[in-house]
Amino acid sequence: MSRRYVNQLSHGDSVDEAFLVADKQLRANRQGNLYLQIELRDKTGSVGARLWNATEDLARSFEPGDFLRVRGKTQIFQGSLQVILTHIDVLDAGRVEPEDFLPQSSQNVSKLFARLRELLLAMSNPHLRALVECFLIDDEFVAKFTSAPAGIKNHHAYQGGLLEHVVTLLNVADRILDLYPEIDRDLLLTGIFLHDVGKIDELSYDRAFAYTDEGQLVGHLVMGVELLREKVLRTVELTGESFPPELLLRLKHMIVSHHGAYEYGSPKLPMTLEAVALHYLDNLDAKIHTFGREIRDDPSRDSSWTPFQQSLGRRLFKGTPGQAADGDTSDF
User: Fold this and answer.
1) Which helix (H) or strand (E) holds 326?
2) pLDDT of 195-242, one tens digit each?
């Protein structure tokens, strides 16, 4: 029998299926009774689940990254689908198909990487092109960069998500840069490539998506600057030419400032044209992806609106159910 994925579940469904544990918390209700709050995941998405009357021994029997066989029933709670569990069993990883559980980019990763190479290796600045080549000839780096997500729960939170995010930004920049001749094209493209490069080691993504110890303690901005410095030294070794100090400084600044505001984790505000452009392009792609996902994945099919999204501070308008937003104005 074929499995049922998260995106096939709806209110009132009985569930008897295997899932990956993305997160687990043992909590107590108002009466002091313990229950388990679990985030279950497969390649199509994740769903929250609760098991009432849990025990500490049961909570210790599995961890994020393990696989569970669960039974229960779905319900809509505060606008979101969740599973009320009646039974769970820990599964041996050898009994499941790993590709069923980690979400992956819907785009062809090989084609995305080919497009990345096409845009970056066409740059005319010899120092930036040599720097990029040092990244692209590093097989270990390429393997990580093409499989890493761009986040754990927010935008592009799936394998290949980082590559997809970066290539989208490169494509947007490639289309609009003729409108902004004052921006250094090669510098912006390189900054786009490098802005989230630290995420390849900030995150773990072989099973459940999580932060590594270094990711928790240091973060991808600092880790990205360290990786850049390492590759610049390698570039100098391979080319025999010094790397321009100001060019390196501008690249470092783009990495550490691309979040755009102190409250969003930027230690510095964008202070160059290329850094400003990177921040707004990055924010645009992240927001469009996040808003689109909330609309697309909303389980309430009969409503014109999503539930209130705490992280976004608003509800989102989906349109009248059954009517496409096709721009038909014939009645006006």
Assistant:
1) none
2) 999 999 999 888 778 899 999 999 999 999 999 999 999 999 999 999
DSSP code string of 145-179 = HTT--S-SSSTT-SBTHHHHHHHHHHHHHHHHGGG
CATH number at residue 25: 2.40.50.140
Distance CA 198, CA 223 (A): 5
In a domain, 322, yes or no: no
Which domain does 50 fall in, by range? 6-100
End-of-domain residue from the set 261, 276, 291: 291
How many separate domains does the chain show? Answer: 2
* Alpha-carbon gap, residue 220 to 120, rounded angstroms: 22
Q: Burial, 319: exposed, middle or buried (Cβ in 10 Å; 0-12, 13-18, 19+)?
A: exposed
Dihedrals phi, psi of 76, to nearest 5 degrees: -90, 125
Residue (of 110, 143, 117, 111) closest to 132 by Cα position: 117
Site of tokens 């059954």: 322
Distance CA 66, CA 96 (A): 11
- Dihedral-angle region of residue 24 (phi above 0 means left; psi in -120 to 50 means alpha; beta otherwise): beta
**CB of 24 within 8 A of CB of 63?**
yes
Note the pLDDT tens digit of each residue in 82-108: 999 999 999 988 888 877 887 778 889
Name the pTM for this structure.
Answer: 0.80
Beta bridge partners of 76: 81
Contact 170, 194 (CB under 8 A): no
Q: Compute the CA torsion angle 113, 116, 122, 126 (nearest 10 deg).
A: -100
How far is 104 from 109, CA to CA, in rounded Å? 10
